[in-house]
Amino acid sequence: MAAARELFVARGYPSAAVGDIAALAGVSVDTVHSSVGRKPVLPRELVETSLSGRDHAVPAGQRDHVLLVHERGWTPEQFREWITDSWTRALPA
Description:
With 93 residues, this protein is mostly helical. The protein folds into 2 domains: 1-58, Orthogonal Bundle (Arc Repressor Mutant, subunit A); 59-93. Helix content is 66%, strand content 0%. It has 6 helices and no strands. It has helices spanning 2-11, 18-25, 29-35, 41-52, 64-72, 76-90. It is elongated, with a radius of gyration of 17 Å. The two termini are 29 Å apart.
């Protein structure tokens, strides 16, 4: 996934060939396909992994922030306030 991310950023999605991603990762194209899937799956997997806050994709209902919302019984407005505050603290001004 790191190789896909690197090439998507450097070249853009259309110019990042799966063969180049595999070569950068030191694996075969078949390994990329069997472990992640075809090229259209890679961007989604990268986003899902990023959203999960872990080193792998996690189903939405099992993500830490979703579990926190359910645990605390927050309303949508309370969640919006929490996420806005979290992003404000996490991102540079």
